[in-house]
Every structure is written in C-alpha cells, then in structure tokens.
What does this fold into?
Amino acid sequence: MGRQPAARHRPVRRALTPLGAPSNERNGSMTKKKVLIISSSLRPNSNSHALCEEVAKGVEAAGGEAQLVRLLGKKINFCTGCYACRPSHRCVQQDDANAICRAICEADAVVFGTPVYYFTICAQLKAVLDRSVQFWPEPKGKPYYVVATMAENASFAHVLSAIQGYMDCFDGARIAGSVLATEVYEPGAVKSTKFMQEAFALGKAIMQEVSK
It folds into this structure.
C-alpha cells in the first residue's frame, strides 16, 4: 500500500510485563524503555518463539521493559479494506489485533518474530501488519528488528523485503537489526545453536539503540 493511510498495533503471550502497563515505569531514576516483541509462530516448541524469548531476556538484562506477545491463541481477523477506521483510528472488528497494533505505536522499539514460509513472513504476522492501518500515520520514527527461522540454508531477502515494505509506509521507520536462523526445522532445534546467543545479544543491542 505505498505511502497511504496505514496503521499500528499492540499485545502479549509470555508477558514479562503486563500488556498495557505504562511505558514510563521507573527503574530507579530512569524511565524504562519499552520493547515490544511479536512472536507470530503458531507451532508448539517454535524455533522463532524460542529466539523471541531470548531477545526479551537480553532486553531485560540491559534494563529495559520487554513485552512479549505471542500470536498463538489470539484472534486476529483479516483487514477488509473498509476504512471505517479512518475518522476515529478504531477498527470496527473486535479482536486481539487492535491491542497489538496499539502496542506497536506505544513501544520504543518493535521486534517481529516469524517462521519463514515459502521464503517470506507467515500469514498471521502479515495479518497484524495489515490491521495496523487503523493507526496510520503511526507508528513512525522508531527502530524495528526481525527474528526469523527457516529450515533451509537460503536467502532471507523476501522476508526482509516484506518487512521493509511495511517500514516504507512510516516516516523514520527502519530495520535496525536482525537474527536470521537457518537450518532449524525440527521443533526446538534452534535451542542448541549459536542463534540463541545472537538473539540475547540483539536484545541488549536494542536497548543501546533506544537509549541513545
């Protein structure tokens, strides 16, 4: 959807902090930065979700507030393109996508976690991105990160281009980092790989970025 009215998100699964908690919580005298991590895999013992959990640990180890939202069990309808949300920034559909989109707007940084299906992002993550049109032109001016897993040892170009297309709709939005795990097919296979350490390090790096 080129640079046209689009929108944004919010939510949670392994909620390291309660969804909807104010982003100005204090840690001593410093305001905690809020990092939203959306884990979109619906598979139990998911590899991409395991990496998202490590990112969350890295964020909190660096003093941030990690809000981990898992789409498993969430009700997320497709955007119908009705644009009824345009005047009020409220979608007429009543499901979990609305809170997720609002959380995207409120976060200081956002991580998109996805398994790779047919060399691109999964459908449930794309559905969330589409529903965020209700908040357009927000969220803008913040860093985004990608955590993705695939069974093959192949290119993530289509995964990154799908997220970049979303970034291109918002002023100042950018992909600031990623963990791209290859050759992790079996459930839980990623847990014995270097990608777990990379995900933890990414969480700490995100905090460095948003604390500048």
Q: What stands out?
A: The CA atoms of residues 76 and 97 lie 5 Å apart. The two ends are 31 Å apart (CA to CA).
